[in-house]
Structure formats: structure tokens, C-alpha cells
Design a protein that fits this description.
- The complex is a heterodimer of chains A (364) and B (122).
- Chain A is of the alpha/beta class.
- Chain A has 11 helices and 8 strands.
- Chain A has helices spanning 2-23, 47-57, 70-88, 104-118, 136-145, 156-168, 207-217, 240-252, 261-271, 291-312, 319-340; strands at 126-130, 148-153, 175-179, 192-198, 218-231, 259-260, 274-280, 343-352.
- In chain A, strands 1, 2, 3, 4, 5, 6, 7 and 8 form an 8-stranded mixed beta sheet that branches.
- The longest helix of chain A is centred in the N-terminal third of the chain and has 22 residues, at 2-23.
- Chain A is globular.
- The longest helix of chain B has 13 residues, at 77-89.
- Classes of the chains: A alpha/beta (364), B alpha+beta (122).
- Chains A and B meet through helix 6 and strand 3 of A and helix 2 and strand 4 of B.
Chain lengths: 364, 122
């Protein structure tokens, strides 16, 4: 009798421990496990120091003079957070309007698929994903539209993850991922039938640089859709609370200065695009995108304990605890940004590269 | 890195006017079997720079592609299988892509080409 009780108790404990260390916190059924958290391409012992460097670089995002150092720090940021994002959030590193009755995953996929529907593609079109992360959107879009998607990301660790996921999903013929900087893309001019970027161009110090590159690689007559992170018409630069929230968002998301919603169409027109449509997708009747972050508060404490235990055991790099906390603090700023309405991560703009290319540079 | 990818990459170093195609320096080639899909191949054919593909596959050790190709060849099963093999099954695991104008090498490690430019190339 005694040994049976002992066996049952031991099994229960073992099962509980396994669940706590290996299953808990995963955003997806077969997704990243907590015990697999790493600092991307950063060596385990260097994660904490790298995180500290990142944090001090982005202290005053709009005052960053060394704009040319930004790509390296964006790369660093994604080495630090990619695993945690995949673990706690999923493979699509962006927000979506919540939809009553639908899961986060479904809402995310619908948001992604809408982007590609706007591009009005013919079958077999080749399109660009500028800032593709680990490819969550790419896979949904390729599967839905049948298009060939080429993604570019500055972070080599993400390229690895994206390719692995593409292969697992059976989409590695349709989807390709390249390691590069979207400010200087290794693609010939006029080579894509369409392009999209989902919450990624915010990492560029100057929006004009990324928009002009996208313009360059698009075939004339093709469309580009972007979901932009911007401050809205409700944002007041002289309101200290607004400023605090925006700076908090910038610092915790590797953003060298959030743009105002007005800047987007201005820059698009400047590089030569025609604007076809522009809309803040977060506005009513859409449901809040930030509720998912709010719900995450409960999960945060549970995950914090988990990550601390794993770091203490030496399974996860020590810096992961700091990064996890940073993301939690940032989530709070993002939530405030959403609730006050001063910030939106889904200002949608749909643009077209004109058909006729003028050979001279005179403007009308 | 497959030749499908190589076929769309070009050197974008400042001042370079003809950065395509990138030459290939081979250190390690791996052959991976990929499911054959004729529709996919017919669809891709129009988008492929044929001579770049032929040149690249020769560098990788495969010389069975015709020097020039036209869409009527897509009716031939044999042609499609050769096209399939060159485009999707030859992988450059380790090596480099070389800018045809400046000679600058873009490293390929574990199958991933790193196309990031250095500060002075921008």
C-alpha cells in the first residue's frame, strides 16, 4: 500500500514538474517550450550583458544620433526576444483586432490574410514581406493566396526559425527567407508583383529609406500594403503622460522614434507611391487589440516564476529573466497606448507604384 | 540556399550597376530531395533568369540544363525534372555569393546567405 502511494505521488510530482517546465506558457500546442528559451544567436553567457547594452542604447529613442547603429541594435533586440515571443505569443509577431468568438490565432490569421487580399494578386505572384520575423504572416498569406513569398529580416536567428517553420508547414517551396537589411535590399529593381510589411517598418530610423527601397523593388503597377505603428490624432506632445507612454513603447520595442499617423502618407507620396487607401484598423467597430496584452498579465507572473526557475537551474540564460520583465513593462505601455487611443499598431496604408516610369526627374 | 533564392538575389553595394547574377563560391553543396510539382515549375519558369540558373547549377556541379530554354520545353517531363533538380534540390550549405562588379563576398553559412552590407558599402 505504502509503495503504491509513493509511486502515485512520485508520478504526480514528476508529471507536474514536466508540465511546469516543458508545457506551461507555450502559446501554441507544439510551439516553443520554456526550456528551449535562448538569446537567439547570442551566446548564453552574454545574454544579460547584451540586454543591458540594448537598454541603455534606447534610453532616448528620438535622440539617437547614431542612426547607423540602429540596425545592429534591432538585430540584437530580436536575438533577445524572438524565443520569448514565439513561446508566449506565437509565430506572428504583431497585433490584431480582437474578434468576439474567435481565438487569438484566428483573429491573427484574418488580419494577415486581409493584407494580402488588398494586394489583388494573380495566381503565382511573387511578393515581398519586408521585416518578416519568423514568418507567421508569410505562411498564412502563402497558404491563403498561393503567392510565392520572399521574406527579408535582419536577424539571422529569425531566418533559421522561419525556414524551419516553413519546412514543417510544407511551404518551403512557396516561401523563401533572406537575411538582409530592408534599407538596402539584395533584390533587383522592378522584381516583385506586390509587397507588404506588418508592423516592421517602425524599426527604420527614416521611413523614407525603407519605403523607397520597397518602391524600387516593386514592378510598376504593383501594390504595397503596410500596417504601421504610429501616434494618432489624440496624441499630444506636450502631455507628459503621453510622452512617457510613447517613449516606453519605443524603448521596449527597439524603435528609433515613432512616427505620427500624418507622416505615413506624406512619406509614401514623397517616394513616388499613389495612395489608394488609408485607415486606422484599430478604430471602432474593431475590437481592442490590446486586450490580449492585458490578459497576459496573469500569465506573466506564472511565466516569470517559470523563467526564473529555469535560469536558476542553468537551463535558460540568465538575461532571459531581464528581457521577460522588460517585455512585461513594455506591454503595460502598449496597453496604455491602446486604451488612451494615442497609439495604434495598425495604421493601414495601401499604395501603388505608378505604371509609367518617368525617365526624367521633373515633378509635376 | 537553393538556386531559386540565388536567382533573385543581387548585389546592392553603393555604386554597383550590375550586381546580378552573384557568382557562387562553393565550399559545401548538399542535395536535398524535394517533392516534384510540375505546376509550380511551370509557374516559376517565367520568373527565372535562365542563364543565371544554368551558370549557377554548373558551379554547383550540375550541368544537365540546356543553355537556353523556352516555354515549349515545359511540356517535356525530362526537362521539368532537370529544372526541378537544379532549382530546388541543390543547396549551397557553406560558401559565398560574390558581387560580380566588386568581388565582395557575401557569406553563406548553414544555408543562409547573409546579404547585410557593411557601413562603407551603403
Amino acid at each position: 500500500m505504502d509503495s503504491l502511494t509513493l509511486l502515485c505521488t512520485a508520478s504526480l510530482l514528476a508529471g507536474g514538474l514536466y508540465w511546469f517546465l516543458c508545457i506551461l506558457g507555450s502559446a501554441e500546442q507544439k510551439g516553443k517550450r520554456a526550456a528551449q528559451l535562448s538569446g537567439g544567436s547570442i551566446a548564453k553567457e552574454k545574454v544579460r550583458d547584451t540586454y543591458k547594452q540594448y537598454w541603455s542604447f534606447f534610453r532616448r529613442p528620438k535622440e539617437i544620433e547614431t542612426a547607423d547603429k540602429v540596425p545592429a541594435f534591432v538585430d540584437t533586440f530580436y536575438n533577445l526576444v524572438t524565443d520569448i515571443y514565439e513561446w508566449g505569443w506565437g509565430q506572428s509577431f504583431h497585433f490584431s483586432p480582437s474578434i468576439p468568438g474567435k481565438s487569438h490565432r484566428e483573429a491573427t490569421r484574418l488580419h494577415e490574410v486581409m493584407a494580402v487580399d488588398l494586394l489583388d494578386l494573380k495566381p503565382g505572384a511573387r511578393i515581398l514581406d519586408a521585416g518578416c520575423g519568423v514568418g507567421g504572416p508569410m505562411r498564412a498569406i502563402a497558404a491563403h493566396s498561393g503567392a510565392n513569398v520572399v521574406g527579408i529580416t535582419i536577424n539571422e536567428y529569425q531566418v533559421n526559425r522561419a525556414r524551419m517553420h516553413n519546412k514543417k508547414a510544407g511551404l518551403d517551396k512557396q516561401c523563401e527567407v533572406v537575411c538582409g537589411n530592408f534599407l538596402q535590399m539584395p533584390f533587383a529593381s522592378d522584381s516583385f508583383d506586390g509587397a507588404y510589411s506588418i508592423e516592421a517598418t517602425c524599426h527604420a530610423p527614416k521611413l523614407e529609406e525603407v519605403y523607397s527601397e520597397i518602391y524600387r523593388v516593386l514592378k510598376p503597377g504593383s501594390l504595397y500594403v503596410s500596417y504601421e505603428w504610429v501616434t494618432t490624432e489624440l496624441y499630444r506632445g506636450d502631455n507628459p503622460e503621453h510622452v512617457e507612454v510613447i517613449q516606453g513603447i519605443e524603448r521596449g520595442d527597439a524603435l528609433p522614434g515613432l512616427r505620427s499617423y500624418k507622416d505615413i502618407s506624406e512619406v509614401a507620396k514623397k517616394v513616388g507611391f499613389e495612395i489608394l487607401n488609408e485607415k486606422d484598423l484599430a478604430k471602432p467597430p474593431s475590437n481592442p487589440w490590446w486586450t490580449r496584452l492585458k490578459m497576459g498579465r496573469i500569465a506573466y507572473w506564472r511565466n516569470h516564476i517559470l523563467v526564473t526557475v529555469l535560469a536558476w537551474l542553468g537551463i535558460a540564460p540568465k538575461g532571459v529573466v531581464d528581457v521577460h520583465e522588460m517585455l512585461f513593462v513594455t506591454a503595460d505601455y502598449l496597453t496604455r497606448g491602446g486604451e488612451t487611443g494615442i497609439f495604434t499598431p495598425m495604421h493601414m496604408i495601401l499604395c501603388r507604384k505608378p505604371d509609367c516610369k518617368s525617365s526624367d526627374s521633373s515633378s509635376f | 540556399m537553393r538556386l531559386l533564392t540565388h536567382n533573385m538575389l543581387s548585389s546592392n553595394i553603393k555604386g554597383v550597376t550590375s550586381g546580378f547574377p552573384l557568382r557562387i563560391e562553393v565550399e559545401k553543396v548538399v542535395q536535398k530531395e524535394v517533392e516534384f510539382n510540375a505546376d509550380f515549375l511551370r509557374n516559376m519558369f517565367a520568373k527565372i533568369e535562365w542563364s543565371a540558373l544554368v551558370e549557377a547549377s554548373k558551379t554547383m556541379g550540375y550541368s544537365e540544363l540546356p543553355d537556353s530554354a523556352e516555354s515549349s520545353m515545359l511540356d517535356s517531363d525530362e526537362f521539368l525534372h532537370r529544372f526541378h533538380h537544379a532549382l530546388l534540390e541543390l543547396h549551397l550549405e557553406e560558401g559565398a555569393l560574390i558581387c560580380p562588379e566588386t568581388g565582395r563576398k557575401f557569406p553563406v553559412n548553414k544555408g543562409i546567405p547573409n546579404m547585410l552590407l557593411h557601413e562603407d558599402e551603403v
